[in-house]
Amino acid sequence: MVWPKRIISWFLTFIMISGTCALSMTAQAKEETEVAAGEQSAAKAEDTAIAEKLTKLGVIDEFDTQTLTNTIKRFEIIPLLMELAGLNNGAETSAVTSPFLDISAFDKQIGAYSTLYKQGYITGDENRMFRPNDLLTYNEAVTLVINIMGYKLFAMRNGGYPSGYLYTANVCKLLDGLTGQGSDPIVWYDVCRILNHAMDADAVVVTNYTGDGEAEFTLDKERTILEDRYSITKTAGIVTGNENTRLRSSDSTGIGQYQIEIDRTVYNTPDAEYAQFLGKAVYAYLKKNEQGEFDVLYLEEIPKKNTEYRLDAADILFSETTGSKIYYTDKNDSKKHISLDAANLVVIYNGKSHTGYGALSDILPKNGYLTALDNTGDQISDVLFINEFQNFIIDSYDSYTNTYYEKYTKEPLRLDPAEDDLRIYNADGSAATIDKLVRGTFISFMQTENSKGYRLITVTINSKSVAGQLDEIFEGDKYLINGTYYELANNMKQYISQGLVAAPKVGQTAAFYLDLAGRIGYYDRDAAQIKGQYAVVMGTEVTGAIANAISLKLFTDEGKIIDVKTTKNLNMDGKRYTLSNKSEIEKVLPLIPVGDIIIFSMNGENVNYIDTPAPNSVAENPLGDAGNLNLIASGSEFRARNGMCHGTDPSQNKFVVKSNETVIFSTPSMDKLLEDTDEYAVTKKLNTSKLLYGQYQNTATRQNIEYFAAYNLEDTKVGISTCLLLRGAGGTGASGLSRSSRFHVFTKFTDSLDADGVHMKRAYYYENGEEGSCLVHDEVRYSYTRAGNAAGDLVPLNNVELCPGDVFQFSTDSNGYINAINVVYRADQSDIKSTYQPDIAKKELAWLTFPSYSMEFNINDGEGAAVGRFIDIDIKNSIMLFDMEDSEKSYQIAVDKASFELFRTDSLKGEPATSASLMEGDVVLIRSETGYDASAAQILILR
To answer: Which InterPro entries match (predicted)?
Structure first.
C-alpha cells in the first residue's frame, strides 16, 4: 500500500523473524544493554508508563500489567505484527493450506500467517518451518521493528545484515534502556521500549521512481513515524494552567476539568486529568478530534528538565529566607538552600496562583510543606507550590448542611461535593470517598477559593500512627516514642493550651496519630496496643555472667516461633524497667508469664514493650486495667464482671468475642511447652459473637483442655474477648474454625469439574456486590433458620433446593469446596408482605438484640439475623431504624461498622452499596457479628 508521495514501509518485505536471523551487537551496544538471560527484573513504573502511553496512542492494544515481564513465543508476536503493518482489515480468515509445515491449516491464526506470508513478511526457514513455540529473541524483535519502520533499505545501504541493521538500530536509539541482548528471550516491556523509540524516528518518504518502477526513499526530518502513521503530533511546552488556576493568574476561566493549558493554548484531555503537571516541562501528544480541535492523548515530562525539591514546614529557616533563596536544614541538621528565579517566580498556594504576597517568608507554610520546581534544568526553581494544611478530628456530622464538627474545638468544616471541588485521599495517595469520613477520623485538609465560585478542597485521611510508651520529653516539645522523636502538630498544641486535652506524660502508653508532616495530631490511650502482637510465651532465659537482656521464645499470632531479646529499657505493664545487670533482670523475670498470653512490640530486632494479664501498674483503677491486657475468663471460673457469671452452672458462663478478629491460640500442656513445638496453632477465623465455655470445650475442640482463658485489651465495659488460649489442646484445638457466616445471595448452579476432573456443582452468588462462585459437595450439612444456629443434617445437595434470590451462609473444607449451607432467607417465602407498610407511630422503639447462640452448629455457626423494612437512618450517629411485621416494636441498630450491599431481585444482580443507598421501604437483612448485640456487621438490601 502506497500513500501519495509518502510511504511508511509497513508492506516492505523484511528479514523473517525465524532462527535464521542472528543479529549481533557491537561491544558498545552490548555494554549498554547486557543483562544475563532470564534475569530480567520485574516491570518498573517506567515500563508500565511506556506501555500505557503506547496504548493511549493506539500503537498497541490494552494490556495486563502482570504480563509485561513475560517472555514471548513467536506465534504471540503475530497479532502485533498484523496491527503494526496495518493488515488487519485485509487479513484472510482461513486458508486451504498452511505456508509452514509446523503450522496447521486449522490454526486459529492461519489467516494472519497466510496474509503475512503472501505479503513477504514471513518466509520460514529452508525447511519451511516457522517454529511458532520458540521464544522471540532481542535480535529478532529489533530486526522486525527496523523493517516495520520502513528502514530496511537504509539498513541494507549501511552494510546489510547484520552490521547495517545494528548501525540503524543504534542511530534510531532502539537499543536504549533494554535489559537484554542478542539471543536472549525478549520480554514484553522491552518490546514496548523498542516501539516507543521507533515512534520518534523520522518518517520515510518516496523521492523518486526509477525507470523500472522501483521507489527511491529518503527521511523526512520534519515528520516522525508517529505523526505520519497515526496523525499524532508531539509538541513540547510548559503546562501553564489547569482547571483550578493558571500559573500567573488565579482565574482559570476557559479551562475545564478535562482540559489543560500548555503555553497558553487550551487542549482537551478526554481520557485523563493532567492537573498535577502544572508548571512542568512536558511533551504533549496531540490528535485532532471530529470537531477539528486538538485532544491531548498523552502527557509526559520531558526527561532531565523537571527537578522538584520538597521541604516540610518544620525544616524551613524563615528568618534567613530571602526572595531568591529558601534556607532550610536537612536530615543531618546542615544548612542548605533552594535557589529561586526571584524576578519570574510563580507561587501556587493551596492549588491557586498567589500574587502580591509581600515577603516570601510571610507565606511559607507553618503547617504543611512546599515543593520548588525547576522546569528548565538550570537548578534554579521557577515555580513554588505551597501547601498549608489544617488538622481536624471529626466528632459529628450534620447531613443537612454537610458540615463536620471538630472533636475538641467544635469548629465547623463544610465539605459539600455538590458545591465544591472536593478531593479525598488516603494516606498512601489513593482516592477515597466521603463515606470514609466518620466519627473519630483524623484528617488534614487544604482549601482555596477560586474565581468559579467554589472551593478547591483537598482532604487526606491520616492513618499513620505509632503505638508505644512515651519515654521522655526533650526541650519541651520533642517526644521520644519507640526510639524516635516526634513533635506536636499545631492543632495538638492548641488543644493543650486551651485545656481541651491533657499533655502526654512520660510513662504513658498510647497510639499517637501523625499528620502529613509526621507530627502528633492527637493521641489515644485506649488504642495503645493496637499495633502490638499477641504471643504465647514458650520460655524465658538469661545467659552470660554480664546480662542486660532477657531471651524470649514466643509463638506469635502469625503462627511463627521466634527467639528474641528484650531491649535494655523494657516497658512492661505500664512500668519502665532498666535491665542493667543480672539482679535487675532476676526481679523482672518472674513477671513474664510462661505459658500465658502477652502483647509485645519491637524496636528493631528487640522487644521493647510487654503487656501481660497482670494489672497495669499505672492504671488509675487496677480492676479497670485501662489500656492493659485483661484476663476476663479462666477455665470455668469467671470474674464477676459485667453479668457474665451464671452463678450455679459454670458451663453456661458466656462471653463475647470479636468475630473473625479474635485470636485463638492452641498449645501443648504446660510441661511440654518447649518440647512439642509442632503442637502450636493459631487462627483468627472464629465466626461467632457469643461463646459458651462448656460447649466450646466439648464441641469445638472435643478435647480435655488443660487451661482455658480469654483476654481483651481495649474494652472494659463489656467482656469482649480479643484472644483465647487453649492450653493442652494441641495443634488441633484451633483447626477447622475457618468458616464463613456472611450473607450470600444465590443466583444459580452450574455443572463443573474439580481439579481432578470430577463432576461437581458450582454455586454462583453475590457477595459484597460482586459475583463469586464455589464448588459444592454432592452432600452438605443443611439447615434453614434465621439464626443459623441449628445443627445441620447431612443431606443430598438437591434437597437444599436453593432458588435464585435465596440468601444463604456456607462453610468450606480445606479444598475450598462448600460442605455446609444454612439458608437464612427464602426469596419466595418472604416474611414481609409486599403490601406491608411500616407504622412506627404506633410502636415502641427498641434496640435490636439477638439471642445468645452456642457453637453447637460448629461447622457453620450462624450469627444473629433479622429481616425488616428500612424506615430511616441517623447518619450522624450511624443508627438505622427499621420495622418488622407482626412485631409490637420498631427497632434501631448501630451500623457504623457494617458493610452494605444491594441485590436487585428483578435482575438478580448485586452491587456494592453504602448507607446512603438505603431507600424507605427496602427489605433489609441484618447480620450481627461484631460482638455487640445492638451493632450490625452486614446489611443486605433486597430491592
So the answer is: SLH_dom
